Amino acid sequence: MSEYRRWLPALALIVLSLTWGYTWVLAKQGLAYAPPFAFAAERCVGAALALLIAVKLSGRRLSLVAPRQTIAIGLAQVAGFMIFQTWALVEGGPGKTAVLIFTMPIWTLLLAWPILGERVRGKQWLAAASTLGGLLLIIEPWDMHASLFSKFLGLMAALCWATGTILIKRLRGKTPVDLLTLTMWQMIFGAVPLVLLAFIVPERSTDWSGSYLGILAFMSIASTAMCWWLWIYILDRVPAWEASLSVLGTPVVAILSSRLIFGEAFKSTEIAGILLIGSGLALLSLLGWAASRRNPARIIEEKT
User: Fold this and answer.
1) Does the residue 211 lie in any domain?
2) What is the pTM of this model?
């Protein structure tokens, strides 16, 4: 049983990467049936309901622990992330948007330094430089055209996600909370501003066709409810920035899916940027793995 449990985080990562990777394609398709803010609100409301049912069926208590911290997590990692992510998909392709949003490990690393005390040391600086260099090649700030806005939105989504990651890690370090219940409450609080925006912002009506209902069901139950819970499960077992690095398979799946379905093409600078980002994040992951091998007690400490 202990051997089986040891592989659970790895299995969670595989499911998370595959599901979230293909989500980018489905999200782009879903926007053909629903406007951005309504789509984000409907997705999160569906996820909140799915999580509420899961909590009740599992016999867990619905009590809210640490309300202020949970509200902050919901606003950052659900509301903020979903708003910028969906808006970015409207302005740009799912492949590039996914790459920009999944630069979140570098922002998580930088935020974890002053907040969690996770310092950047030695070769981690080389990895950070590689990641930021690749980021510049993808964003191309010297090429000021319309798509720059979608890149900005993608980066804002990444920052929101990184902020939420830090808040979850800090909450778990101070207060014992049930992971599934925490996921449910953060989804509920995150859905509230999304619903308000959907009513306030003038948008076209949602086309409640069978195709859209199928997309929405997958996005709500699998991509949002299940994967958000898997994310917190993984985050509960490794340091914040290492958890962010662990989902690097997601943008790879997104790019491959996007190319096959939408026929997206990348310029040479974008390919070079993706390679630099991948190399930098892979190096950070390798350094984290090597550190855990030298100091196994750190892993035990993270689990407690």
Assistant:
1) yes
2) 0.78
